[in-house]
Write a structure and sequence with these properties.
- This protein has about 140 residues and is mainly alpha-helical.
- Helices cover about 60% and strands about 0% of the residues.
- It is built from six helices and no strands.
- The N and C termini lie far apart (about 65 Å).
């Protein structure tokens, strides 16, 4: 409380001057908050994010920077959502993946025909070995 009161009192004059503008408040600190809180994690290192993943990460960052305790959050989640049965990992061939993507993307799936790939002999041997080991 003392820290908040000190902050408000030290910025009181600037706040009053800002509110006297004819057009009201002419800006906010949103840009800097986005830069410090979200961009630091979401775009500083090249990553791909799904919409759900980006939403979850932004909510977690906001929770943390608003003083939320991450351990309390994990404990709450364990109580509220008991662990679901995990499905066994299924390994798909490239043909199955392409077929799935074509059907999932409809008309856009036709562009998957143009995807070409090549693997080095060493990688092919590694993949073959791993699939044989998993099959045991």
């Amino acid at each position: 409380m003392e820290e908040a009161a000190s902050y408000i009192l030290s910025n009181w004059t600037a706040a009053k001057l800002r509110l006297k503008h004819k057009n009201g408040v002419l800006g906010s600190s949103t840009e800097s908050h986005v830069s410090h809180i979200l961009s630091a994690r979401m775009s500083s290192r090249p990553m791909g994010w799904s919409r759900q993943g980006a939403s979850n990460m932004s909510e977690l960052r906001a929770y943390y920077y608003n003083g939320g305790d991450m351990l309390d959050l994990v404990r709450y989640q364990k109580k509220a959502c008991p662990e679901e049965k995990k499905e066994e990992e299924k390994i798909l061939s490239s043909t199955q993946i392409l077929r799935s993507e074509k059907s999932r993307h409809g008309e856009l799936g036709k562009y998957l025909e143009s995807i070409h790939h090549s693997m080095s002999l060493q990688n092919k041997k590694k993949v073959y070995f791993e699939t044989q080991i998993r099959g045991l």
